[in-house]
Design brief:
The chain is built from 15 helices and 13 strands. It is an alpha/beta fold. The structure holds nicotinamide-adenine-dinucleotide. The site of nicotinamide-adenine-dinucleotide (NAD) has 29 residues, from helix 4. Pfam families: UDPG_MGDP_dh (PF00984), UDPG_MGDP_dh_C (PF03720), UDPG_MGDP_dh_N (PF03721).
Length: 424
């Protein structure tokens, strides 16, 4: 039977995947966000993962975008790429996964396959999504319909490691379905696939990739705090230590975004449910979450050391996205710096040329400067370079001088400035 794919959730993960599949198969992109469907139908991807030409290419390949159930009922492979956030208490919020499973259940037919790509803890596909599919479809798992899990590894803003160039883990609910799922991805992933032994193994593999990174960054962050008290430059220490073949070279920094700062909570939640307290992983989370406050306190101390008044001082924060050259502001930890600085009565301006200023579209509630501060008259007592966007890497000492109130005070979180007043 001809494969007809439906990708559910057209965000950072779903859209590039749907584009890649459209080169080989008939694909429908489904999303509940009406604005997203409208923009994509007009060739515009606000995540900037796909260019206008790429969206148009997908459309030319026959791909359509929709938020209507009737448009997806003829599909036989459903691929779910909806968000998996945490709530205010860092508990997994599985609502989008449950709701999208209920949507699929309404159109599921005998022989169909549902493949989940969203990052979860081991067991979510078979213990939470499958019952929802069975309930809404009235069909039986592994008899009438089947499932797969294939985690995504893309890195937003990275134009080199794009979806088809990253080796992909695949899995299926039966041996035969694992083969079908693996072949499906093999047909578009030039880097190849790795067939995991079960859905749970594939789910666990994804969540530990990001947990390992989080723990390793937390170690470097903790070392940075220690070396700061010793007056040693952490970056210089890392350069030296990295001359050993098996040293893992990571930089200290903020851990924000939708993945590394969130996924470990999925694993710790499930571990705690099962009676195990994952102290190392939770400790790493705490260290990484505290970095924004630490950077803000350091900035205040440096202002004091430079005989600056704190209350009503003007501070400019350059960059607010969770990473460089990307418009994604979800779970950005730069905001922790801003909020902490404001507690001291300072006036903080935030400038980020990558972020859409319309709150309704980004759901970002902190006010951003509409104009480039380097083209305005306002002077600042300190400048915090928080994100290494290309636009900021190009700036010179003279640029910073031109908008500084007296001697420029530069706080460099990303290690991109020469001789800053403080570098993380
Ligand atoms: N962004 C990344 O770099 C990245 C990398 C690897 C894995 N992941 C994982 O992939 C998943 C998706 O992440 P993302 O960054 O693409 O998210 P996203 O927020 O960019 O996109 C998700 C899309 O799903 C849509 N959606 C939400 N609920 C829906 C529903 N019930 N039905 C249909 N559409 C729905 C949203 O409108 C949105 O357009 C998450 O589990 C994430 O952890 C993300």
């Amino acid at each position: 039977m001809e494969k007809k794919l439906c990708v559910i959730g057209l965000g950072y993960v779903g859209l590039p995947l749907a584009h890649a599949f459209s080169k080989k198969y008939k694909v429908i992109g489904f999303d509940i966000n009406e604005l997203r469907i409208e923009e994509l139908s007009n060739g515009f991807d606000r995540t900037l993962e796909l260019s206008k030409e790429q969206v148009e290419e997908a459309k030319k390949n026959g791909m359509t975008f929709s938020n209507k159930l009737e448009d997806i009922k003829d599909c036989n492979i459903y691929i779910v790429t909806v968000p998996t956030p945490v709530d205010s208490k860092n508990k997994p919020d599985l609502t989008p996964l449950i709701k999208s499973s209920a949507t699929i259940g309404k159109v599921l037919s005998k022989g169909d396959i549902v493949i989940y790509e969203s990052t979860v803890y081991p067991g979510v596909t078979e213990e939470i999504c499958v019952p929802e599919l069975e309930k809404t479809s009235g069909l039986k798992f592994n008899k009438d319909f089947f499932c797969g899990y294939s985690p995504e590894r893309i890195n937003p803003g990275d134009k080199e490691h794009t979806v088809s160039k990253i080796l992909k883990i695949t899995s299926g609910s039966t041996k035969e379905i694992a083969d079908v799922v693996d072949k499906l991805y093999q047909s578009i992933i030039t880097a190849g696939t790795f067939k995991a032994t079960s859905i749970k193994v594939a789910e666990a593999a994804k969540v530990i990739e990001n947990t390992q990174r989080d723990v390793n960054i937390a170690l470097v962050n903790e070392l940075a705090l220690i070396f700061d008290t010793m007056g040693i430059d952490t970056n210089e220490v890392i350069e030296a230590a990295a001359t050993k073949w098996n040293f893992i070279k990571l930089k200290p920094g903020l851990v924000g975004g939708h993945c590394i700062g969130v996924d470990p909570y999925y694993l710790t939640f499930r571990a705690e449910e099962l009676g195990y307290t994952p102290n190392l992983i939770l400790g790493a989370r705490q260290i990484n979450n505290a970095m924004g406050k630490y950077i803000a306190e350091k900035t205040i101390k440096i202002l004091i050391d430079n005989d600056k008044k704190i209350k009503n001082s003007n501070i400019l924060v350059l960059g607010v996205t969770f990473k460089e050259n990307c418009p994604d502001v979800r779970n950005t930890k730069v905001i922790d710096i801003v909020d902490e600085l404001r507690k001291y009565g300072t006036n903080v301006d935030i400038y980020d040329p990558w972020v859409d200023l319309s709150e309704e579209k980004t759901h970002f509630t902190h006010e951003l400067m509409a104009k480039n501060p380097f083209e305005l008259e306002k002077k600042y007592d300190a400048i915090v370079v928080a994100v290494a966007h290309d636009e900021f890497i190009k700036l010179t000492k003279e640029d910073y001088k031109s908008i500084s109130n007296g001697k420029e005070i530069l706080i460099d979180i990303k290690g991109i400035l020469e001789n800053p007043d403080w570098r993380l």
